[in-house]
Design a protein that fits this description.
Blueprint (H helix, E strand, L loop, with lengths): L4 E9 L6 H9 L6 E8 L5 H11 L3 E6 L4 H11 L2 E6 L5 E2 L3 H11 L4 E6 L13 H10 L10 E4 L18 H10 L7 E9 L15 H14 L9 H18 L10 H13 L5 H8 L3 H18 L1
Helix pairs in contact: 5-6, 5-8, 6-7, 8-9
Amino acid sequence: MGHKVAVSVIVPCFRVEQFLEKCVNSILISSFEDFEIILVDDGSPDRTGVIADELAKRDSRIRVIHRQNGGVIKARETGVDAAMGEWITLVDSDDSITPNALEDLYNASLVNDTDIVIGYPVGKKYLVLPDHYDIQQYRFDTISGTRIHAAPWGRLIRRSIITSFMFGIPREVRLGEDMLFNIRCAFATDKDPIVINSYVYDYFKNVEGAVHTNKRNPEGEQLFHKMRLASIPVEEHEKYMSAMILDRFHPILWWSYQNPFDTSWMESEFVANLKRDIQNSHCFLDKKSKTLLYQRNKWLRFIIIGYYRLLAYIRK
């Protein structure tokens, strides 16, 4: 059993034998000292679990939990359940944090009464946010997938607001489980979040590790949307419907740009529900969104999408 600390760093581990030590070392050299590391070996078939045990022998701040494979969400839950920290931060085992990450995030938590403190991944441009960035704005951004990054890492979350509900996400949800976790946390508190202009997280895209790349399809998007509705209190659905509509245009944009001639997704339940929500909420759509959603002539789509892609290129 560990002892009380300020921050518990939860690291789910699966098939990361070549990355794990680098990840852990990035945490150990932190300028902040009052933390523990919980490595959750999610039934990894390679030497990940062995390496985790070896790392724990070198530093008393590291604990290792071995469990049967259940996916990254359940591995995170296992780590949080064992955590002794006032604050939780999640780190994927093929990534690393910056030396100043824990110190900057924790010091920000002392300035104002908050339950969520958010930093930036390395290389991402700092956002221009309102002087008073409140919980309603944060919820909108989290639901719509705009401004604030959708990943659960790069932030501190107060342990007391995290419940099993945050992790009750089916493994069938292959894309968006991180966003669902953040949405549920956003509605677990009424306190305004703190966003700090500090690079705290270095993301590495490893398709064999905790994060997998999956092709977006209408069935998966519809399942995700159903889970999003379940993540937001029913009485808040109308208030945040515009945010949910905005986010549902992200896969439509992706499908349209990938293949302007493929309109098979237009016949899906996902699109039918989106159109119904737009109509019922009287949501305004700009010309681009209307074209992507309603224009069925494939050659017109090809020409118009090409025009928008050219505009985006020119503006870079």
